[in-house]
Amino acid sequence: MIAGMKRETLIWTIVMVLGAAGLLGRAFFSEQGMGREYVRAVPVANGQWTQYDGATYTDYLRAEQAQPGQTVVQLSLPRTVGLWLAAFFTLAVFSFLWGDNPFYRIAEHVFVGVSAAYWMVVAFWDVIVPNLIGKIWPGVVQAWALPGLAGPEAERNLVYVVPLVLGLMLLWRLMPAGGWIARWPLAVVVGTTAGLRLIGFLQGDFLAQIRNTILPLVVFTGGAFDFWGSVSNTIIVVGVLCCLTYFFFSFEHKGIVGGVAHVGIWMLMITFGAAFGYTVMGRIALLGARLEFLLDNWLWLIDPTGRRVVATMLFGLIG
Amino acid sequence: MGAFLVQEWWIVLMFLASLAPLLHRLATGGLVASLRTLDRRWIFLLMFWAVAFPIYYVGVTGKTLPEVPGLLAQSTFDEIERLAPGDPVLLAFDYEPSSAGELTPMATAFVRHAAEKRLRMYFVALWPLGAQMIDDVIERVLTPDFPQLQYGRDFVNLGYKSGQEAVIKVIVTNLRELYTTDVRGTAVQNIPMMEGIASVQQMKLIIDVSAGTPGTKEWVQYAVTPYPSLRIVAGVTGVSAPLYYPYIPRQLHGLLGAIKGAAEYEQLVLTRYGGENPNPKYTEGLRRMGPQLVAHLLIIGLIVVANILYFTDPSRARR
Q1: How far is CA A178 from CA A166, A183, A187, A188, in A?
Q2: What per-residue confidence (pLDDT) applies to A44?
């Protein structure tokens, strides 16, 4: 059968079998095992409810050592399943580096679906309920969802009927006819956003950046000549002027203009290089965080945060 | 290192075994010819080891690289350090789990620093999952290590509001227009630390942890630039960091760029407040600098090798 397999399928099969064997060995035959989450049961509201706070494996062993069979610190099945799902989806996304495959597609689809649902729920409870319904019908929201809503913030404000109507008009595009009604609120959204951003960029970028570039080329700090301060300011001023010249197309880029524009290109290239370097650093940091999650939280191969430091010692005492 | 390699022989064995086919090909197929036709997946594997091995090494030995804080990290630290106990600060967590690997170390260090200074912390989020990021850092930092700090008196999670920059535009003049309750549904008028707080302009400092838009740029455009008395420091992802340099120092008073900025800031906080044996959760950024070093060396090496291969390619002249 192996002889008839495609090379890639064979490699995948070997990797999967070896990985599964390694995981089973780690989970069932190693001293500590792997990939388990624990919680501490904390009674709240005079014991009416139980709140489950996160706990470590060390906490569990300590509690067992103090009182065998205790239930205060216990294994959390939901959190453990969540941990294994997180590990599975991490590996599923990483598998795209080998090539497109069903595991990656599952992860991608689940991510899109969960994200959309999450955003919808958060927007409903954090915005629509307190900032729309709560403004128009505060009594309803108080009785139904937010009993703590009180004071001047809970007074009825009928101005919010306007965004409610605009919101309903926006939803009209889902209707079979009269889709043009949705264009009116859309026009309001586009207009206000454009106006808001125009002011923001004019104030925060255009005018402020001109001000930030008006710098002394000869800097004195505490009465003494500051050589590096002067160099820094000169580079900023010269760099900005050269880059602006590069984007100035009313003259042909020849002679002095061409030379200055060429310096501008170099400035831009250095900027792109710095941005690329920063991006590489960011991506490596993200990869590092996921690998640390796999090695620490899931496989229990390392313990950088000290959550299982004492566990090894206690394990000997109990087991 | 030698003793580590002997003790952890199995990981060395896995490393050599995984690269054995590549080494065999380089040895038998000719170095240059094999490199010219190298499958990109070997690069992925090399990158995996370049990041995973240092993580494993740091995780087992607990050793981190020394970090010398730069001017930007120092100015960020100084902005918080100059504040007096009880001063109100706005902590905007504008990021989600997708960039947590880069930004969580900064968020942790910011909150720890603010808690050590006994500042009043007002948490907000412009990203839907930002509220969960806030809860996470409260659970990891404030609840276990600062039990004397009370919710509602010393810190409050006001949660997420949709609207992007429009939210900033509103709360910079009237915080209660949008934030009528906190994430728990408690009316802001019933939260002791909200007494007398009408707008963001009353904050002594804005601390923004930002993964993109809306984030630091919007806080600069719509809060700090129109109201120059406001001050802001930011911790941002590597991808976006170069965009914010033009705002320094007039519009942005401190900047932590990517994991390097996080590590430098962590070092400053640890030096001032860490003690001799700091909790590993406060050294997350420092731990990630080992993988950064090895991965960057690999990338530099690959760029050099690829350029040599390109410029020595005999078919290049024909093309």
Answers
A1: 15, 10, 16, 18
A2: 83
